[in-house]
């Protein structure tokens, strides 16, 4: 029987990073994976394919709308969707092969099949052919991720009624796309298909889009998306989708109750959140506790209720983000190896990869108010940033929130081009407990969009130069 120091179940960003870090620290490691390829949701049907399509569709739209004003004459771009999908697949293949290479390089054994925890030190792996093997290991890390949250009355077939997985592989551009849920997936994949020609309506239960993000940012974000052609039906819910005719017919009701209406669509995308994926793990038999939302319960050191069994990533509490899973993977590997692993949950950036991008790190104004923390605000619009002006990409702004007493930066919110890249200087500053004054006194190269962050920091003390 094979024996290991550590077996990791799942090779998504949480699992593979954990395995590599543990191997670096000298542990004998194996991973268990039931999918044909490594990399989990993120690399196969999540972050990576969506970013490939966001990139390609953004350039498609730019070629049609923005090139002419820069004096670049091109004929109206023609969409070759199969070629765009092949571009997406090449990106996926490159990344999943990269993980395979890294596992090999770090001498990590791969156990193909579905992992089930038998208890402390033991698990079972069942291959696609049904054959099982028992594996002994000092520690087990569960990193089995998440799956699509179902919606009552709406049966996903991944063809016309799709989750994000189907929406990443449609074989033609839908005339009308109805998105259920104005969260990250709805806005990103809604953007892809809108740019390629779909008429997109987003139905959202709450009275705002992207709950959790700073309210002021979200208001401007929604206006910009509407300008691009998004239609939002807020405070509404889809209660049924009739797929018997050539067009889908969705029944939409006000969230607060009232008269229903019907909307027709070629494709309906269900994007109302994700739930932990624990189906094959045998949690109950093994005595591994879960919470009311089905997430595996862990302590501050990622330990489950069964000694020697840990859990990380989407399958546990917290943000369902690849980089959060990765950092937990590294931390738990270090803890298992007897070192001090740690994740700072106060400084985890979030990015929505639309045009413009929306990015934040730390607290929103709403959260600071709710916590009763006195804060100061510094804001700077990209309309006043020289580089944005010359490139004519002036949508959005930077907002820096600092502690009113200590000036320590508590949150940074950016709406604008490349916000997802810009946000990291704020993350580094906050990781080091930096102040708005520190940011304001850091020399920023000119002309860059990053200067807007410096100006927002200057504006905390009411001394922005270009405004
Ligand atoms: P996963 O990546 O879900 O990996 C779990 C792995 O475990 C899978 O490979 C699965 O096959 C395997 N597995 C499950 N059960 C078993 C078992 N019993 N035995 C063996 N193997 C098993 N996050 C971001 O940070 N940025 C983004 O841009 C982003 N975009 C996204 C876009 C979409 C469309 C979606 C759906 C998600 C996106 N996410 C993004 C979220 C991100 O994908 C997840 O947060 C991340 O993948 C979680 O990593 P994980 O390791 O916890 O689990
Ligand atoms: P989400 O939690 O971001 O958004 C779901 C939205 O659906 C919310 O606004 C919610 O209020 C709404 N909703 C819930 N029930 C509803 C109903 N019955 N009718 C109408 N609206 C309803 O979830 P989403 O977009 O599915 O994404 C899942 C996860 O994947 C997210 O938690 C996110 O962390 C991750 N992800 C991250 C990305 C990124 O980092 N760029 C990209 C895509 C996904």
Automatic annotation (TrEMBL):
Catalytic residue list: 446
Record-annotated disulphide pairs: 42-47
Positions contributing to NAD(+) binding: 181-188, 204, 273
SUPFAM superfamilies for this protein: FAD/NAD(P)-binding domain, FAD/NAD-linked reductases, dimerisation (C-terminal) domain
Binding residues for FAD: 51, 115, 144-146, 314, 320-323
Enzyme class: oxidoreductase
Catalytic activities: N(6)-[(R)-dihydrolipoyl]-L-lysyl-[protein] + NAD(+) = N(6)-[(R)-lipoyl]-L-lysyl-[protein] + NADH + H(+)
Catalytic activity, EC: 1.8.1.4
Cofactor: FAD
Entry annotated with the keyword Disulfide bond: yes
Alphabetized InterPro entries for the sequence: Class-I_Pyr_Nuc-Dis_Oxidored, FAD/NAD-bd_sf, FAD/NAD-binding_dom, FAD/NAD-linked_Rdtase_dimer_sf, Lipoamide_DH, Pyr_nuc-diS_OxRdtase, Pyr_nucl-diS_OxRdtase_dimer, Pyr_OxRdtase_I_AS
Example GO biological process: cellular respiration
Ranges of residues in domain Pyridine nucleotide-disulphide oxidoreductase dimerisation: 348-457
Miscellaneous information on this protein: The active site is a redox-active disulfide bond.
Protein name: Dihydrolipoyl dehydrogenase
Originating organism: Rhodopseudomonas faecalis
